[in-house]
Amino acid sequence: MRNILSYLLFLVICGSTCPALAAPSEGDYILRDFKFKDGEFLASLKMHYTVFGTPVKDASGTTRNAVLIMHGTTGSSHQFIRPEFSGVLFGPGSLLDTTKYFIILTDDIGHGGSSKPSDGLHARFPQYGYQDMVEAEYRLITEGLGVNHLRLVMGTSMGGMHTWLWGEIHSDFMDALMPLASLPTQITGRNRVWRRMIIDAIRYDPEWKDGDYTTQPQSLRIAAEVLFFMSSNPPLRQQEMPTLAESDTVLDRFVSAYMKHADANDVLYAVESSHDYDPGPELGNIKVPLLAVNSDDDLINPPELRVLEKEIKRVPRGHYVIIPYSDKTRGHGTHTLAAVWKQYLEELLKESAH
Question: What is the pLDDT of residue 20?
Fold first, then answer.
């Protein structure tokens, strides 16, 4: 329902200036006896999804038009049903025209409408990692939606990291890969530090009560402030908040809105889930064309580390783009502004066409 409401809001915002989109449909698929990498089980793991379009199979029974798009940490599929993303990519004649493509937007484990700690297990929910999330995505797509091949796998931030893993774990399952706002390396350095700040704030908060709180602990506010800090870029923040009073107002407004829908256990688990992310050793196993897109002003994946330039050399058909800073970029949030990078998606689709 939330995705449908997002779509209706999208129509209101767009008015007559956006291309007409068919309404999305959404559903739940239950993964039975789901085994996590650490050995824990859930008898029923719910995976929520939103789809546009209809799958098409060729004469051999292979799905040819399915596109998987994965969201970021603490996000959900509805983050893509916005004018700046679906309004740019999904309309008639657009790169991912939903009259031609079957678009799959997943809510990952612990996020959106999928099974998560706040459903009732709280801190007794299995400690999932990125590999568990990719396995659940794969089972949803193959078992739940009957898709046996993907034209394209792409994702933003955490979804971008999942894209690297998809290319390694299911190397023959797709025609192309497009990770956005991510790096193909273990979470280290400052990227690990901001995550630890959130993790420690919650886990060491007496109000957290080992996950069995009845009201949200104050550490959720700290988590919101850290997430705000790491998004966007400094010049834009300065423009938005030119005085001390305005800085406090903007931050308070963000935190207040965040606190209305967020849950401390869900945020804790979502941030901790990157613990097993390390695609580096298997990058050579990626077979299909891959185009990684980052932005020059991304605080989470700063280009001065030169990780992407180094590691992409190990991907047989890999390329990368770092979008220069401009008044059109939004730091880490640039990944949802499809107009900024859609030209690279067009290049990838042409390169990987059959």
Answer: 62
User: Which parts of the chain sit beneath pLDDT 70?
Assistant: 1-20
Buried b (16+ CB within 10 A) or exposed e, 281-301: ebbeebebbbbbbbbbbbbbb
Residues 3, 100: Cα–Cα separation, whole Å? 21
Helix, strand or coil, per DSSP, at residue 216: coil
Q: What percent of the chain has pLDDT over 90?
A: 92
pLDDT in tens, 171-230: 999 999 999 999 999 999 999 999 999 999 999 999 999 999 999 999 999 999 999 999
Cα(1)–Cα(8) distance, rounded to whole angstroms? 11
**pLDDT above 70 coverage of the chain, percent:** 94
* Contact in structure between 294 and 266 (CB atoms under 8 Å): no
Give the count of domains, the chain.
2
DSSP 115-149: --GGGTTGGGS----HHHHHHHHHHIIIIIS----
What's the Cα-to-Cα distance from 33 to each of 36, 40, 41, rounded to whole Å? 10, 10, 6
Same structural domain for residues 196 and 181? no
Give the model's pLDDT for residue 13: 43
User: Could you give the CA distance from residue 271 to residue 317 in angstroms, rounded to a whole number?
Assistant: 31
Q: Look at residue 240 in the predicted model and tell me its pLDDT.
A: 94
User: Are 242 and 151 members of one domain?
Assistant: no
DSSP string for residues in 296-322: TT-SSS-GGG-HHHHHGGGSTTEEEEE
- Containing domain of residue 80, as a range? 2-185+280-351
Q: How far is CA 129 from CA 75, 132, 185, in A?
A: 16, 5, 15
Residue 4, pLDDT score: 47
The pLDDT value recorded for residue 224 is 97
3-state percent breakdown (helix, strand, coil) of the chain, nearest 5: 45, 20, 35
| Amino acid present at 124 | R
Say whether both 57 and 200 belong to one domain: no
pLDDT value at position 232? Answer: 87
128 shares a domain with 37: yes
Task: Single out the residue of 29, 35, 32, 34 nearest to residue 47, CA to CA.
Answer: 29
